[in-house]
Amino acid sequence: MVRPKKFLGQHFLKSKGVIEKIVNSLEISPKDTVIEIGPGTGVLTEEILKREPEKLIAIEVDGELAKLLREKFKKFPNFELINTDATKVDFCSFGKNLKLIGNLPYNVGSFIVLNTVRSKDCLNRAVYMLQKEVVERLTLKHKKPSWLGILLNTFFDTDYLMSVPARFFYPPPKVVSAVISMKPKKVQPSFNVEDYKRFLEKLFMQRRKMLKTKLPLEVLEKANIPPTKRVEQLGVEDFIRLYREFIN
Q1: Secondary structure of residue 87 in the 3-state scheme
Q2: How many whole angstroms separate alpha carbon 138 and alpha carbon 45?
Q3: 92-110, pLDDT tens digit by residue?
Q4: Contact 189, 240 (CB under 8 A)
Q5: Which of 76, 151, 169, 225 has a CA that sits 20 to 30 A from residue 70's CA?
Q6: Alpha-carbon distance 76 to 24, whole Å?
Q7: Cα separation, 124 vs 237, whole angstroms
Q8: The predicted structure's pLDDT at residue 17
Q9: What's the DSSP call for residue 118?
Q10: Cα 241-242-243 angle, rounded to 5 deg
Q11: What is d(CA 159, CA 140) in angstroms, rounded to the nearest whole number?
Q12: Where are the alpha helices (DSSP H) in the chain?
């Protein structure tokens, strides 16, 4: 048995019921190309292959696990394994209308979500498992929003699907996990993602400071945002208006 590697943030999911629910939420059809990130020992992979997608591309950074997975699923002609780092992969290189899924390693989960936003134009949806607090921030259910949560919800509709207790993993993590569904919005602003990201990052630095210390008063006035507001008091539409006025 392959031992989970702590330095890679590995926790292997072992609950059949949770595995089925996660894969069901992706709504796989026979014409789909599915990309699985961090397949681990292949429990999600096995469930995905039962749905017979046209192609399943598994991206695994761990060489030992990659070898195990290639052997385990070699009989499936629609299965492909890529031994690389998913934070650096251009998902759009695999085609259009892609479906992404993964029990993401805790230490790189946010980087993979950011990579997903960058790939918004070629995605159908993504379903990820991450730490519960991270999912709360990404779905804007946390009292303290993050710049990544605002960035994500500018371009995607997000949904908190379920919580997953630590006992459903080997080894059990010290935190509760949760599953997020992300679907690109049908109508989304035509922003440059990287520039908008930098704008949000700057606003979220020293988050307790009032916006009037971070942006010109005329920008705040045109966007109809009181200058005494702080970032955690704003919603997605407020940030969109602010950025539009900022770049004009």
Answers
A1: helix
A2: 25
A3: 999 999 999 998 887 889 9
A4: yes
A5: 169
A6: 20
A7: 23
A8: 85
A9: H
A10: 95
A11: 10
A12: 16-24, 43-50, 63-72, 109-118, 132-138, 147-155, 193-204, 217-222, 236-247
Residue 57 near residue 84 (C-beta atoms within 8 A):
no
Task: Please give the backbone phi and psi of residue 237, each rounded to the nearest 5 degrees, phi first.
Answer: -65, -35
Residue with tokens 């789909």: 32
pLDDT at 105: 80
Domain residue ranges of the chain, discontinuous segments joined by +: 6-184, 193-247
CA-nearest of 150, 152, 174, 177 to 163 is 177
What is the pLDDT, as a whole number, of residue 34?
98
Q: Spell out the CATH class of 6-184.
A: alpha beta
- Please give the pLDDT value at position 183: 98
- Contacts of the segment 157-162: beta carbons below 8 A, 24+ positions apart: 157/182, 157/183, 157/184, 157/185, 158/182, 160/135, 160/136, 161/21, 161/22, 161/25, 161/127, 162/18, 162/21
Per-residue DSSP letter, 235: -
List the alpha helices (DSSP H) in 156-216: 193-204
Work out the end-to-end distance of the chain between its first and last CA atoms, rounded to an integer number of angstroms.
58
- Regions in the chain scoring below 50 on pLDDT: 1, 4-10
Beta-bridged to residue 157, according to DSSP, are 183
The pair of structure tokens assigned to 230 is 């702080």
CA distances from 115 to 80, 89, 197 (A): 20, 8, 12
Range 193-247 classified under CATH 3.30.720.210: no
Residue with tokens 């399943």: 56
Q: How many CA atoms lie within 13 A of 44 on its CB side?
A: 31
Q: Report whether 73 contacts 49 (CB < 8 A).
A: yes
Domains 6-184 and 193-247 fall in the same CATH topology: no
The per-residue pLDDT for 80 is: 97
